[in-house]
Structure formats: C-alpha cells, structure tokens
Amino acid sequence: MKLIRLLALSFCLLMLALPNLAHAVCDQSGASTADKDLWNTHGCNKNYYLWSYKAYDQRESDWTGRGWKDACNVKLEFPKHWNATYLVTYGLQDANCCSWHGTADYRPLAEAADSSFHSSIYHDAKDGTANFGAWTWHPFDSNEVTTFCPLYNKTVANANPASRAGDFMHEGWHGWLDKYDWDNGSCGGHRCGTPGNCTANNACDYFYFHGVGKFAFGSLYKTDGTAATFHSPNQVQVEFLCDVADYPKGWVPNSVRLAARTDADTRSVQRFINGPGYKCGNPRPW
User: Fold this and answer.
1) Left, alpha or beta for 69 (phi > 0: left; psi -120 to 50: alpha)?
2) How far apart are CA 51 and CA 82, in angstroms?
3) Tens digit of each residue's pLDDT (9 = 90 or more) over 77-101
4) Is residue 278 part of a domain?
5) Can you tell me the distance from the alpha carbon of 69 to that of 105, in angstroms, rounded to the nearest whole number?
6) What distance in Å separates the CA atoms of residue 93 and residue 221, rounded to the nearest whole number?
7) What letters, b where the CB count within 10 A reaches 16 and e where it falls short, cover 55-73?
8) Distance CA 221, CA 145 (A)
9) 187 is in which domain, residue-wise?
10) Residue 239: which of 270, 218, 208, 200 has the closest Cα?
11) How many beta carbons lie within 10 A of that of residue 53, not counting itself?
C-alpha cells in the first residue's frame, strides 16, 4: 500500500503540473441555481461558517482570493464550500427504512478530524478544470482534500452543493482506504483504463451492492473484508448523492435534489466496472 500511496501522490503531482491545471482560474462571476436556492435557506450564517472552516480545517493561505474574507458572497469558492458543508451537516433525513447511510457517517467522512473513517485531513481549493477533486497523502501533515473549478464554476453541472459535498465523500473514502491499507487500484486509487462497463478512463471502481439495513448509521467504516461490506469511492459518492436526492430534510430545495440525482445517475453509468450501478429512485432492499 505504501507503494500505491507514492504512485497516487506522484500521479496527483503530475496532474497538478499539467498546463490546463496550472493556469485555469475558477469562475467567480456567479453561483448555480442550486447554490443560490440552498443559500437562501440559511443566509450568511456567521456562527455556522466560523464552525465549518475549523471542522473542515480550511487554512487562510489556501482560500485567500476565494472568499476567505468575503464569506457571505456566494459567488466565491469559500462560501460555496461551506454552503455544501451545511447540506452535509443538516440536510439528510436519516430514514431508518431507506437511507443508505446517515449523517453519523457522512459528517466524519467529510470533516477533518482523525476518526474511524480516516486520518486527519484538510480541505483546500485549487485552479484546474481536469478534475473535480483529489486526495493527496502527506507524510508530515494532515492529508489533503482538494476541490477544483468544475465544482465551483456556475455553468458546470457539478457546481452545486450536493455534487461538491459528494466529492467530500469520494475523497474522504480514499482516506479510509489509506487508513485501513486497502488497495483499490493503482490509478490514483482507482482501476486503470476502462475495464468492463466503465467509460471514465483511470477512474473506474466496482459497485459492491448491499441492502440499506447492512450498516447501522455511524458504522459505514466497518468491513469484514468481503464484497458484502465493502465500498469504493465512487460508490460512497453515489450513495450519498442518492440519499440527498431521495431522503433529504423537507427544506432542502428541489434544485439541490435534482442536481444530486443527475450527478449520481451519470456517475453510476460511467464509473462502475460492473455497472450501471445503483441509480437514485431504484428500490432499496432492506
């Protein structure tokens, strides 16, 4: 696994060095409808964002010029980031009958603190258009979860609170794989190429199907090492997005739910070797 870490780190550094990553600038001219609709449910909640930046270990040097000192301007990356964390913190119904997982799983997976889900992480944003997000292992600091411009640029379908939060889950699960020394593939923690039904080059996973009663809320991190209790990063992301789409709190705007469904269903078709995997709205067996 140590070799896989180094390969994944080298891959991330190589991707960051590519010209289309190094010179791109995120669009700060506006916000998507879903971002604005969710924002209007809470407004500029100072107490919340002062909590959120600590919970997600966001550092001023990483967010300068991205709304660090303009946290109430939803056009900028930092406000959009905490808008997504608000959805994670408060937006899920946690339906015992039907939710794949609960807030007790998604919050520690996304948040920075060392936990049963991952070693400590910190969140930053970087210019770039080739990726939605990245997880980077650091030997002498917390590990790094990076989100890129396609999750912030208002005209991109994934620039919405649900997709942004879904990426927190995806990258956090790379942290879970590292913490428990699982090898999910040698291409940045995914399977290389386009095996099986996957069409997302070097970003392919298996979908390990389970019923909604398999994991008590808060126990997503547990596995017996078999396919019955295992998840891939794309799978965790899809399950979260479908929980947002199908079982959110009643106040979550419809635009956020629809964006979550679109992202999950697209990913389900494109990212799974044994796919299409589960799609939002499909029956959820206990």
Assistant:
1) alpha
2) 10
3) 999 999 999 999 999 999 999 999 9
4) no
5) 31
6) 20
7) bbbbeeebbeebbbeebee
8) 18
9) 2-271
10) 208
11) 21
How many distinct structural domains can be found in the chain? 1
pLDDT, tens only, 166-182: 999 999 999 999 999 99
How many Cβ atoms are within 10 Å of 23's Cβ, its own excluded? 10
CB 164 within 8 A of CB 153: no
In a domain, residue 285? The reply is no
Per-residue pLDDT for 164 more than 60? Answer: yes
Cα-based distances in Å from 98 to 41, 92, 208, 211, 276:
25, 12, 17, 9, 21
ω before 248 within 30° of 0 (cis)? no
163 belongs to a structural domain: yes
Is 0.70 topped by the overall pTM?
Answer: yes
Identify whether 276 is part of a domain.
no
Angle ∠(172,277,215) on CA atoms, nearest 5:
55
